[in-house]
Amino acid sequence: MTHVVATAPYPDQKPGTSGLRKKVPVFQQKNYVENFVQSIFDSLEGFQGKTLILGGDGRYFNREAIQIIIRMAAANGFGRLMVGQGGILSTPATSNMIRKYKAFGGIILSASHNPGGPHEDFGIKYNTDNGGPAPEKITDRIFELSKKIAEYKIVESDPVDIDTLGTVHVGDMAVEVFDPVKDYAELMESLFDFDAIRKMFKGGFRMRFDAMHAVTGPYAKEIFEHRLGAPDGTARNSRPLPDFGGHHPDPNLVHAKHLYDEMMGTDAPDFGAASDGDGDRNLVIGKGIFVTPSDSLALLSANAHLAPGYSKGLKGIARSMPTSGAADRVAQKLGIGMYETPTGWKFFGNLLDAGKVTICGEESSGTGSDHVREKDGIWAVLLWLNILAVRGESVKEIVEKHWAAYGRNYYSRHDYEEVETDRANALVADLRGKLASLPGSTIRGMKVTAADDFAYYDPVDGSVSEHQGIRVMFEGDSRVVFRLSGTGTSGATLRVYIERYEPDKARHDLETQEALSDLIAAADEIARIRTHTGRNKPSVIT
Ligand code: G1P
Ligand code: ZN
Predict the structure, then answer these.
(1) CA triplet 78, 144, 342: central angle to 5 degrees?
(2) Structurally, how many domains does the chain consist of?
(3) Is this structure's pTM higher than 0.85?
């Protein structure tokens, strides 16, 4: 084993919810990955002889990073390292592996839905033994340690063949190359009625799943086509590529527009879905109807009992604050707890561990449950399929009946990307300054009932997270929310979330932007978006 004196460059940033994300050339600098990985190991205690799970979404630099991490894990004293074959392991599958094999933790190599390639994004994230992202006290420690790291430990060894299943040794550590799909597919079979779904496919049900040349391809092939009998070609773009075929592996209406267009066409399949780079997000589109992630959370919650894994009902539901209130109405009807957390999956971890909630979701296409501690794209698709198989109705029928019963939450997110940081900060400061004067005022004929800067009190560990987004509530359960993204890699991204609750069934078929137009105008009036950003329209509308 060699101790190498650590020299610059060091990571100059605290790893966020999604780990450390930088452009590939940054990670390629000599010692950079080593310094960061050693800082992760130094932040942990008691892993000698224990197991580490490792894998990534297959993006550019995945294989190189894996070889470095294997040699460093051996030098630092892990007893066993389990790596997905080919370096492939989706984020939810990593979470499952950590839990199932009682590993000490896991390292996920991904930059989620961001593009990959020699000049695109890469990322390294650490998950703890509950299978979830490292909590802030660990990421803080990693950052502190990375600033003063003096040396890193690495063993000299030839590259491990990560394409062949089996076990080899690097130093004193066993390296086990495993099938990244098998354990995950077994978990899915334990939760869902595969017989019912198989029967539905046999009866001619047509589905299109777009893996976007990212990590879910092998999972989709095995689960949908092999185990559930969907025809060959149901999973598209199923070969993971280092550059995702040159696209953004982001399953939204912009980057998966082809899927949307197909689902709105005359010969549309019954069900369309897609997942992102590392397999934790999902997009769901029925024949002729897009299901917003917020609605999807509500619908899945209302129907989850139809799947064997959830037949006893839900303990509670959690959603991120900017996610629409549609799920709140379901929780109310079911008489279960509803939790509103800040943006970012890590806030769900405590609630899931404490058994307070079963299902969680975010407006940004993330849905998941207590089966792992990450959001899970394939899981969401399977729960939808299970519900469709049991109810025997189309997505459109199910969604429209849901709206008729609970009311519809029209919802949209407007993103202003790459805004100069100073300008974005000025907008937020301006907004904070006028919060107190908003309640009671009338904007565009709509009465403001409340306005605040969202703070979250974690009911499990008592921690407080402040400044998590500014909410302006209007009469009738409509609202606008403003917050700055925490995941961007250049400048600031302002996200404006607009929501209007419409109880009247006769008004459930409006075009979304149209239905929200007054609130969109109100949002601009309140935050002076155009003036502050210098933009007259959002860069992305979802
Ligand atoms: C975005 C999403 C958030 C999600 C995160 C990681 O964060 O909005 O819901 O948890 O990516 O996938 P943001 O850029 O808004 O901080
Ligand atoms: Zn992701």
Answers:
(1) 95
(2) 3
(3) yes
